[in-house]
Amino acid sequence: TKPVCPYCGTPYKGKLPVLNLYSSRKEGSYRPDDHRLMVWSGQSIYAWHVNRLIAPNERTTDAQRKRVGYFVFHNDQWWLVNEGINGLMSLPDKRQIAIGEKIELTNNAQFVLSKEEGGRLVVVQLVEN
Description:
Keywords: Kinase, Transferase. This protein is mainly β. It has a single domain, classed as Tumour Suppressor Smad4 (Sandwich). It is built from 2 helices and 10 strands; from the N terminus they run E-E-E-H-H-E-E-E-E-E-E-E.
């Protein structure tokens, strides 16, 4: 299937990021979640994307329901803007991405959303349309 705008149905042309998610079972060891996230400009990211042990259900706290980041396509580049992810770190340089900063989504880019148990590692795949 061809990607379309989730709001108006307009077909999308260009590169779209797909985030392949891996989660920690023990510190420093990540295993595939068999879960992917297709990104579009303006899409939000929440605590349940950052950590596999958090589920979006009736027990989700108000703090966990708050958006912690968003994706944006700006000047022909994809970015994740950090609004509340304390452990966001790019790899392999291990650079901390502070709240208020952004990280570019390039093909095969890797970053850690959280080093806590259940925290996720992301591997970016840019899909051309």
